[in-house]
Amino acid sequence: MVTNKRLEIGGFSLMYDVVIIGGGPCGLATGLALQEKGIKYVIIEKEAIVNSIVNCPLDIRFYSTSDRLEIGNIPFLSQEVRPTRSELLKYYRLVTERQALNIKCFQRVDRISKDSDSFTVHTVDRTGTHFSYQARMIVIATGIFDHPKKIGIEGEKLSKVAHYYKEGHSYHGQNVTVVGGKNSAVEAAIDLYRNGAHVTLVHRGDNVYKGIKPSLLLDIRNFIEKGKIKFYANSSVKEINMTTICLETPEGLVTIPNDYAFSLIGYQPDIGMLQSIGIQIDSSTLVPAFNSETYETNVPNVYLAGVVTGGITNRVYIEDGRFHGLKIAEDMRRRLNA
Known about the structure:
globular, FAD/NAD(P)-binding domain, flavoprotein, seven-stranded mixed beta sheet, disordered N terminus, single chain, alpha/beta, 2 domains, Ferredoxin-NADP_redctase_2
């Protein structure tokens, strides 16, 4: 039978059936599924809710249609078929408020400890106050977008280098280099050009036309072919300093003027947290070990939900991960009622 063992008291250990780590769309969807089944849970989020979407470009319009981003069977109606960032943020806020989801924002997970029949998730908030949450089960729904891949070169830690792109206005007239060849890099390069930046796009592949959104393809092809965006194919960044970037190209080393750089080469899961509690990770794909039917990992009573299940394969998105919580909740209810 499902039990609620302890009331919440600030700073002391709090008892739940389930702790969900991560307040993105898939974490929220898991909370809704547990709530529907009467399972006592709490969601821990180190930033604001759906922080990965908060970090998206301000003017982005998502490629997915609004109905494929819905959670908990709660309708999402956007002005156009594909929603904007602001529309999607508003939708997830309203879901959180109207469904009274139990979420604690701006608490970072410090560590997870385990005893014979429960886990304790230790957190710290922005003021340095520590909390701990006990539960029989854990769901890790941390996604991947808080952990950008690094190039691993000298100068990458300079303040002018960013791993997220917001908007282009501030870069008008500046020499800006974008590193990467997927949607985020191409979208940033196009927006920077439209805002008056002098844009260089660097990609280790021979082109950036494969696998990107159709809505970007015509613009990026046109801008590259007409020389409006300088493109270095089959190239990589060798070194970054305050005024230049050194590129390794098929023609040899090339140094170009640079004021700002965006390294948008992808993201990866927080494998440190996963491995700290014994979850096995595939070394090449960073895909964790889990049961595809229940989403339970090789560690009993620890589950995964959302994009984190795909490692660095880019095969799991919100559209898929939003349904993971339904299977997790069903398996948890069976165990808690046993």
